[in-house]
Amino acid sequence: MSQSKVQRPPAGRRAAFVSFVLALAAGGVLRAWMFGHFFEANGDTLVYGDIAKNLLLHGRYAISLDPGILHTTLIRLPGYPLFLAACFKLFGMENYAAPALVQIALGLGTCLLLADFARRIAPPALKTGAAHGTLWLAAMCPFTAIYEATPLTEGPTFFVLALAMGAAARFRERQDWGSALWFTFAVTYAALLRPDGALAGLVLAPAMLVALRDGSTRTLAARQRMALVCLLLAAAPFAAWTWRNWRAFHVIQPLVPESAADPGQFVNHGWERWVRTWSLDFVSTYDIYWNVPGGDLDINQLPSRAFDSPAQRAETAALADEYNNGGDDLTPRIDAEFAQLAKQRIAAHPLRFYLWLPLGRVTDMWLRPRVENMNIDLDWWVYAHHNQETEISWTLAALNALYLALGIAGLCLRPRMGELLLAYMVLRSAMLFFTVGAPEARYTLECFPMLFALGGVALSTVWWTIFSRRVPAGN
User: 271 with 330: CB under 8 angstroms?
Assistant: First the structure.
């Protein structure tokens, strides 16, 4: 073979390099655009930021009730406050743009980790195509990109989920300490960011134990030592967090309470149960659930399914008037009345409460166009009010459906670990079914790293068809 032929790279390799560079560049541009147009620091961001600031200034894991008054808290896990505290320390106190920019860099790293993961799980002939398909799907997804450009837990969560998936795939190939430790770090930090982050460990850890038992050449003692070390490392932060909560509040709380309230704080259980008897979509969450207590309860904003009869509507209206006239204070007595109203509605329609509404909420969280962080009205489907916003929203809904369809197609190709990715998505959906009464589309975004990898496997067949041919020998 001549020297010129040796130096000339195959067409497929050149195409792969160009694809790699373009995907990362396009992903960076998309995230920078999202940051420039939709960056906000409010709501949960300020709660996390307040804890981070008090850690740095006062050495206390606390929230500020009034200027100069701190209240020790356990309503948020320490993973994201520690991340913000590190950013504040490096880039300036309450500089919320800095963590968003760090998350953009982590987001591009997430794309690379997922591409490597897809390469490892795809059939041998489709590995390159799966890697590049996954890279493009992850880089150009607006739904995850906008959260990576926003100082919230979703961005770091995508990164550690991708890290856990990749480490688990490498560990199944070779049971090395590096993969085991990276996996331990990833699933531990995922659970420190959000309580549902523990699902990744719950799904992937048993498969790693099986690989350690069946595929390792290590002695039994060495395998036991590896499993014990990883278990202790994973448990240590939660043991420390549980001990801290016991010392501060005298409660055993290894994560955070479902109510996201500190011990002794009044929780509106009756109100929340009543909301679950009719809440179905994000519009109800935004207009009603987030507004009470503290804001008016406008009965005209309630959907018709919130009332089973004219008499029940009148009862609800009277209760709303009592709340509104009381200074928007959801007192224990008013909360108890909402609980009684919820009890009546559940008794009359138990299947609606226990089955149909939870199914509807999960469906809403999977299929919405995910415009909650964009400047688009909540009634985006009313074309007469804003035709351009409606068209954008339906386009995003179609894109969301495309990611789901590609994920299903990837599962049909039976990649390695495909059953584990499916198990994670099913388990997460089941958790949302049983626990979420006020749906938000972002609650299903943690499944998108799995969809990216499965979708990349599906797209690999296209890549193989177009780019698998090499330069003819005579060229």
Answer: yes
User: By C-alpha distance, which of 16, 35, 36 is closest to 135?
Assistant: 16
Alpha carbon distance 76, 86 (integer Å): 17
Contact 83, 157 (CB under 8 A): no
CA separation for the pair 342, 279 (Å, rounded): 12
Question: Is 155 buried (19+), middle (13-18) or exposed (0-12) by CB count in 10 A?
Answer: buried
pLDDT at 463 over 80: no
Distance, C-alpha 355 to centroid of its chain: 24
> The dihedral of CA 385, 387, 392, 397: what is its sign?
positive
Query: With b meaning 16 or more CB within 10 Å and e meaning fewer, what string describes 437-453?
Result: bbbbbbbbbbbbbbbbb
Sign of the Cα pseudo-torsion (268, 269, 271, 276, in order): positive
Which pLDDT tens digit goes with each residue over 391-450?
888 999 999 999 999 999 999 999 999 999 999 999 999 999 999 999 999 999 999 999
Helix (H) or strand (E) holding 431: helix 418-435
Can you list the alpha helix ranges (DSSP code H) found in 94-253? 97-121, 127-139, 142-148, 154-173, 177-193, 198-214, 220-249
Query: Contact at 8 Å (CB) between 439 and 279?
Result: yes
| Spatial contact of 172 and 215, defined as CB atoms under 8 Å apart | yes
Phi–psi pair at 469, nearest 5 degrees: -70, 140
Pairing type for strands 69-72 and 62-66 reads: antiparallel
The yes-or-no verdict on residue 470 having pLDDT over 90 is no
Q: How far is CA 346 from CA 278, 300, 311, 396, 439, in A?
A: 10, 22, 16, 35, 19
Count of beta carbons in the 10 Å neighbourhood of residue 137: 28
How far, in Å, CA of 402 to CA of 408, rounded?
Answer: 10
- pTM assigned to the model: 0.92
Amino acid at 67: P
Backbone angles phi, psi at 65, to 5 degrees: -80, -45
Which alpha helices (DSSP H) does 282-309 contain, by range?
A: 282-287
What percentage of the chain reaches a pLDDT higher than 70? Answer: 94
CB atoms within 10 A of CB 60: 14
Q: How many other CB atoms are there within 10 angstroms of residue 229's CB atom?
A: 14
Reading the block at residue 345, the tokens are 């509605």
| pLDDT per residue as tens digits for the range 221-239 | 998 999 999 999 999 999 9
pLDDT of the residue at 115: 97
